[in-house]
Design goal:
Number of strands: 22
Number of helices: 27
Keywords: ATP-binding, Cell membrane, Membrane, Metal-binding, Nucleotide-binding, Transmembrane, Transmembrane helix
GO molecular function: ATP binding; ATP hydrolysis activity; ATPase-coupled monoatomic cation transmembrane transporter activity; cadmium ion transmembrane transporter activity; metal ion binding
Strand content: 5-15%
Protein name: Heavy metal translocating P-type ATPase
Membrane topology: Multi-pass membrane protein
CATH topology of one domain: Four Helix Bundle (Hemerythrin (Met), subunit A)
Organism: Rhodococcus xishaensis
Distance between the termini: 38 Å
Helix content: 55-70%
Largest sheet: 7 strands, mixed
C-alpha cells in the first residue's frame, strides 16, 4: 500500500550522533590545548587547537556548500572564513574557540530541529496484511494483494475491513471512527457499501470486494498523508533572515580593514568577532527554551519551524469528534416514566449490557460506573445484532436496545424520542419484565472547556476558526453555531478535509487539529498540524507538528503565546548580539582587538545573549493548589450527579402542563426534597469552600461574584417552589391560580441551573489538572 524508508536503524543512530560527537571533539581539543598551554607545552597546545579548528572546518564547509546548492548564502560563510583565517595568521586559540562555539550552536540547533519520523508506519501497522476469502468448501486466508474485485470475503469480530465493498450478509455493525471520526457505531445492511479501514464492531459478516487493496479507501488515506507531508517545507530560520544583511556588512568591514591597514590579522579579527555565535547560539536556545516550556504544559512541538509557524498562525481548522466534543458516546440523560427511578433504570441497563461488546453498551456501562452504581451480574444474556441485549438482572428480565414505539406509546416515551431527535442523540430503550421503563439518551457531548478554549484561541491571534468533520451536518452545525465558528463543513471524507485545509492554507498560516487516523492527511497538509495525542491515533501524532498530550485544546492557546514570546526573545537576543558584534568589529578593524581577545569577547557576548534567550523558559502560569484542585474535582463530580437529576424539574413542569394536578403535587414534593436535601447544600458548599479557594488562582474574589449571585437566584426560586408546595398541602392540592407561576418557576429554575452548571464547569472546573487523559471530562 505504501513504501517506507528501510534504512537500518544503526545508520539513523549514527546520523543523530554527529552533533554530540562534533561538540565532544572540539571541546576536547580546546581543553587539551589549554592544559598543554598552562603546562608550558606551547607547540602541543597549538597542535590541539589546530586540530579542533580543522575538525570544525569540515562541517562548516559542508554547510556552506549545502546552503549554496539550495540557493542560500547563510552566516556559515563568516564562520568558515574566520576558521580558515585563524589558521593562516596563526591565531590558533581563536580558531579553537570559534570551533567550540560552532559545535555548540550546531548541537542546539539539532535539538531544536530534530523531529519525529513522519513515515506513517502506524498507518500501515493498523492495516490488515491478509484477508479471509470464501471458497467453495470453506474460507481461506490470502495476502491482501491477492484480493480482486468480486471476491467474497469474511470479516470477523474486531477485524479491520480489508478492502472497499458491499455487505452481502444480513447486517454489519461497524465502527467507522477511523475514517469519519464519528464515535457511534453504525449498521450497514445487505447491499450497503463499507470502506476499508473501518472495524467490525459486531459479529462476523460477509462482504463482496468492489476494489483492490491499492484502490481502496485506506490506501488512499496513506497516499494522501504521504503526498501532503511531501508538500510541507521547513521555514527559513530566523538566523538566516538576519544574516541577509549581516553577512555582506561583516565582509565589507573585514575587507576594508585589510585594505586600509594592510594587515590580514585585522581582517581575521573582524571576522572572528563577526562570527555569528549570537545567531547560532541564542536563537536555538530561545527556541529550545520555548519548546521545553510548552512541553511542561503538555504541548510537544516537534521543531523550531513548527514553533515559529505556530506563532504566526491566524487560521485554525478543527475536527469535531475528540477535539470540540469528548469523542466518546456518553449517557447524556436518563428518562423514565413519571414514577420511575433514573438511577435504577441506568443500573439495570448497565448490568444487562456488561457482556456486550457494542460501543453504546460500553458507554452505558461506563456511565453507570462513573456514577458509582453497583452492577449485578446478568444471566441468560442474549444479544441480537442491531436490536440490543436481553438478560436476567436481579430476577427481572431486562432488555436494552432499539425499539419501534407503538402508536399508543406513553407520552414520556414520545417526548424522549423527540428530545433525542432534537439533540442528535442515539437512544437506548429499557424494558423491565416487558414494561417500557426508561430511555437512555447517548450523545458525543461538547467538551466542557470548549467555549473557554474558543475564546482563548481567538485571543491568541486566531481570527478564523473552521470545523471540518466527517460527522452528520445537524450536530456539526449545532456545535459550530454554539461556539461561534466562522465556517462548518460536515460529512467530509479524508480527501475533502485535505482539500479544505489546503484552501485555508492558501489564505493564511493555518493550524489543523485532529485526533483520528482520518485526520492524518489533513494534519500533514496544514502549515502546523496539531494532534490530540492523549486519545488520538499514533498515525495522527506522527503526521503532526504539535502533539497535545494532556487532552486540553486550550493549551494550544498557551503554546501559541509561548511560540510568539520565544520567537520575540530569539530575534531580540540575535539582534542585540549582532549589535554588540558590530561594535566589536569596529574596534577590531582599528587594531584594538586581536583575534584571540576578540574570540573571548565574543564568548562574553554569547553568554549575555544566551542568558537573555533563557528567559523563554519562564512565563506566568495560573497555579492551582493541590487542595483546590481536589476540591474542583469533587464539585465537578457532584455536578455530574446533579445534572441528571435536573430533569425532575422539567418532568414536573410537563405534568403540570398536561393538567394532572394530583400527579404534579406528588412530583412537587420530590422536587422539594431534591432541592433542599441535595442541590442547595451543594450550592452552599461552593459558596463556603470552593469560591474562597479560587480567589488566589483567579486573582481576586470578584471573579466568582457573579456565580454567588446566581446561587442567590437559585435559592430564591427554590424557596418560591416550597411556598407553592406549602399552599398546595394546606389546600389539599394545587389550585388553578398556582399553575402559571409554578410553570415559570420550574422552567426558570431548570434553565438557570443548566446555565449555572455550564458556567462553573467552563470557568472554574477546567482549571483543575486533568488526572488522566482517558477519563471523562
Amino acid at each position: 500500500m505504501a513504501s517506507f524508508d528501510t534504512r537500518p536503524r544503526w545508520i539513523e543512530r549514527l546520523r543523530r550522533s554527529r552533533e554530540p560527537a562534533f561538540l565532544a571533539v572540539t571541546g576536547l581539543a580546546l581543553v587539551a590545548g589549554g592544559v598543554a598551554w598552562l603546562a608550558g607545552a606551547r607547540d602541543v597546545a597549538d597542535a590541539c587547537w589546530i586540530a579542533g579548528t580543522v575538525v570544525a572546518i569540515v562541517p562548516a564547509t559542508w554547510w556552506v556548500v549545502d546552503a549554496l546548492r539550495n540557493g542560500r548564502v547563510g552566516v556559515d560563510v563568516i564562520a568558515l572564513l574566520s576558521l580558515i583565517g585563524t589558521l593562516l595568521v596563526e591565531e590558533y586559540l581563536a580558531g579553537a574557540l570559534i570551533a567550540i562555539m560552532l559545535a555548540t550552536g550546531q548541537a542546539l540547533d539539532a535539538a531544536a530541529g530534530r523531529r519525529a519520523t513522519k513515515d506513517l508506519r502506524s498507518l500501515l501497522d493498523r492495516a490488515p496484511r491478509t484477508a479471509r476469502r470464501r471458497i467453495d468448501d470453506g474460507v481461506e486466508t490470502v495476502p491482501l494483494e491477492d484480493i480482486i474485485v468480486g471476491d467474497a470475503l469474511v470479516v470477523g469480530a474486531g477485524e479491520v475491513v480489508p478492502v472497499d465493498g458491499w455487505v452481502t450478509s444480513g447486517l454489519a455493525v461497524l465502527d467507522e471512527s477511523a475514517l469519519t471520526g464519528e464515535p457511534l457505531a453504525v449498521s450497514r445492511r445487505r447491499g450497503e457499501a463499507v470502506r476499508s479501514g473501518i472495524v467490525n464492531a459486531g459479529p462476523v459478516f460477509e462482504m463482496q470486494a468492489r476494489a483492490t487493496a491499492e484502490e481502496s479507501t485506506y490506501a488512499g488515506i496513506v497516499r494522501l498523508a504521504q503526498d501532503a507531508a511531501a508538500e510541507s517545507a521547513p521555514v527559513v530560520r530566523v538566523a538566516d533572515r538576519i544574516a541577509g544583511w549581516f553577512l555582506p556588512l561583516a565582509l565589507a568591514v573585514s575587507g576594508a580593514a585589510w585594505l586600509l591597514s594592510g594587515s590580514a590579522t585585522r581582517a581575521v579579527a573582524v571576522l572572528v568577532v563577526a562570527t555569528p555565535c549570537p545567531l547560532l547560539l541564542a536563537v536555538p536556545v530561545a527556541i529550545v527554551s520555548g519548546l521545553s516550556r510548552a512541553s511542561r504544559l503538555g504541548v510537544v512541538i516537534r521543531d523550531g519551524s513548527a514553533l515559529e509557524n505556530l506563532g504566526h498562525a491566524t487560521s485554525l481548522v478543527m475536527d469535531k469528534t475528540g477535539t470540540l466534543t469528548t469523542g466518546r458516546p456518553t449517557g447524556a440523560e436518563v428518562l423514565t416514566a413519571p414514577d420511575g427511578d433514573p438511577t435504577e433504570v441506568l443500573r439495570l441497563a448497565a448490568s444487562a449490557d456488561q457482556l456486550s461488546p457494542h460501543v453504546l453498551a460500553d458507554a452505558i456501562v461506563q456511565e453507570a460506573r462513573i456514577r458509582g452504581l453497583e452492577l449485578s451480574l446478568p444471566t441468560e444474556a442474549d444479544e441480537e445484532v442491531g436490536t440490543g441485549v436481553t438478560a436476567i438482572v436481579d430476577e427481572r428480565r431486562v432488555t436494552v436496545g432499539t425499539l419501534d414505539l407503538p402508536a399508543d406509546a406513553p407520552g414520556w416515551a414520545r417526548s424522549a424520542k423527540g428530545r433525542a431527535a432534537l439533540d442528535g442523540a442515539a437512544i437506548a430503550w429499557v424494558t423491565v419484565d416487558g414494561v417500557l421503563t426508561g430511555a437512555i439518551l447517548l450523545t458525543d457531548p461538547m467538551r466542557r472547556d470548549a467555549f473557554r478554549t474558543i475564546r482563548r484561541l481567538r485571543s491568541a491571534g486566531l481570527n478564523r476558526l473552521v470545523m471540518l468533520t466527517g460527522d452528520r451536518r445537524e450536530p456539526a452545525e449545532e456545535i459550530g453555531s454554539a461556539l461561534g465558528l466562522d465556517a462548518v463543513y460536515a460529512e467530509q471524507s479524508p480527501a475533502d478535509k485535505v482539500a479544505g485545509v489546503r484552501a485555508e492554507r492558501e489564505r493564511a498560516v493555518t493550524v489543523m487539529v485532529g485526533d483520528g487516523v482520518n485526520d492524518a492527511p489533513a494534519l500533514a497538509a496544514s502549515t502546523v498540524g496539531v494532534a490530540m495525542g492523549a486519545r488520538g491515533s499514533t498515525a495522527t501524532s506522527e503526521a503532526a507538528d504539535v502533539v497535545l498530550t494532556t487532552d486540553r485544546l486550550d493549551h494550544l492557546a498557551d503554546a501559541m503565546a509561548i511560540a510568539r514570546r520565544a520567537r520575540r526573545i530569539a530575534v531580540q537576543s540575535a539582534t542585540v548580539g549582532m549589535g554588540l558584534s558590530l561594535v566589536a568589529m569596529g574596534f577590531a578593524a582599528f587594531g584594538l582587538l586581536p583575534p584571540a581577545a576578540g574570540a573571548l569577547l565574543q564568548e562574553g557576548i554569547d553568554v549575555a545573549v544566551i542568558l537573555n534567550a533563557l528567559r523563554a523558559l519562564r512565563g506566568k502560569k495560573v497555579h492551582v493548589p493541590v487542595e483546590t484542585a481536589a476540591m474542583l474535582h469533587r464539585f465537578s463530580a457532584e455536578h455530574d450527579e446533579l445534572r441528571d437529576q435536573l430533569s425532575i424539574l422539567r418532568d414536573t413542569a410537563g405534568l403540570l402542563a398536561t393538567g394532572d394536578l394530583a400527579a404534579t403535587h406528588d412530583a412537587l414534593r420530590r422536587v422539594d426534597t431534591f432541592l433542599f436535601d441535595t442541590l442547595l447544600p451543594h450550592e452552599e458548599a461552593e459558596d463556603r469552600e470552593l469560591y474562597p479557594a479560587l480567589a488566589t488562582p483567579l486573582g481576586n474574589s470578584e471573579a466568582t461574584a457573579t456565580m454567588s449571585r446566581m446561587h442567590t437566584e437559585i435559592d430564591r426560586l427554590a424557596r418560591r417552589l416550597r411556598t407553592h408546595l406549602v399552599h398546595a398541602d394546606a389546600a389539599g392540592g394545587i389550585s388553578a391560580d398556582q399553575v402559571d407561576d409554578l410553570l415559570a418557576c420550574l422552567y426558570g429554575l431548570h434553565a438557570v441551573l443548566r446555565l449555572h452548571f455550564v458556567q462553573e464547569e467552563e470557568n472554574y472546573f477546567t482549571l483543575a489538572p486533568v488526572p488522566d487523559a482517558t477519563s471523562n471530562s
